[in-house]
From TrEMBL:
The keyword Cytoplasm applies. The gene is phoU. This is Phosphate-specific transport system accessory protein PhoU. Coiled coil: none annotated. The lineage of its organism: Bacteria, Bacillati, Bacillota, Bacilli, Bacillales. InterPro entries: PhoU, PhoU-like_sf, PhoU_dom.
């Protein structure tokens, strides 16, 4: 019973670290969009420095998971829970990298006046953030209904991504000088679209955890 109690404690530690990682990723993305909109270079630099905390959590989750598997030799749902935690941790680490990439785009744009308000980008950010938040909740509660809701939200991000591309490319028809900034904003849109894709991947992992089989929720 003592061994099982320690195992449950370590599983809970893994879950808490993953939730913390999700929270840091959400904050990093919010700061990156704010740095872009308000052209705040200092804030963009902070995001790049703070990414180390997410990377450290990813390493801690991987190390503890390997230790748990080696020492406890879990099976069935317990093993899936550990493996899914590792995979979701990797997804979040990449999502946090997208926040860093957006911060880098904000730095490259610098203090040049924005060629247009970033409203569609902000809408993409709002949905992508909600997808991450709900996916964390779905993981914590092992809720496949909520996980499916997250996957369904990806269509809205994809539609806004297409709209953003059209709007930005239209600008270049009237002003070739805007191309460098348009390029950076296209990158930002792409990072947000990929961010949402990774939230969908988290949902697929939750389905695997609960149902014991793989589902493709991207189609």
């Amino acid at each position: 019973m003592v061994v099982r109690g320690k195992f449950e404690f370590d599983l809970n530690t893994l879950r808490e670290k993953l939730i913390e990682m999700g929270s840091l990723t959400e904050i990093a993305l919010a700061k990156s969009i704010d740095a872009l909109e308000n052209q705040n270079i200092e804030k963009a630099l902070e995001i790049m420095e703070e990414d180390e905390a997410v990377d450290n959590l990813d390493e801690e989750i991987n190390d503890l998971s390997i230790l748990l598997i080696a020492k406890q030799q879990p099976v069935a749902t317990d093993l899936r829970r550990i493996m899914v935690t590792i995979k979701i941790s990797n997804e979040m680490e990449r999502m946090a990298d997208f926040a860093v990439n957006i911060a880098k785009s904000a730095i490259r744009i610098g203090d040049d006046p924005l060629i247009k308000p970033i409203e569609t980008i902000k809408k993409m950010h709002a949905i992508a953030t909600e997808m991450l938040s709900l996916s964390i909740k779905a993981f914590n509660e092992e809720d496949v209904v909520l996980a499916k809701k997250v996957a369904d939200m990806d269509d809205a991000v994809d539609n806004l991504y297409g709209q953003t591309i059209r709007e930005l490319l239209e600008l270049t028809q009237h002003s070739q000088e805007s191309m460098p900034q348009v390029t950076q904003l296209l990158f930002v849109s792409r990072y947000l679209e990929r961010f949402a894709d990774h939230a969908t991947n988290i949902s697929e992992n939750i389905f695997y955890l609960v149902k014991g089989r793989h589902y493709d929720l991207n189609n």
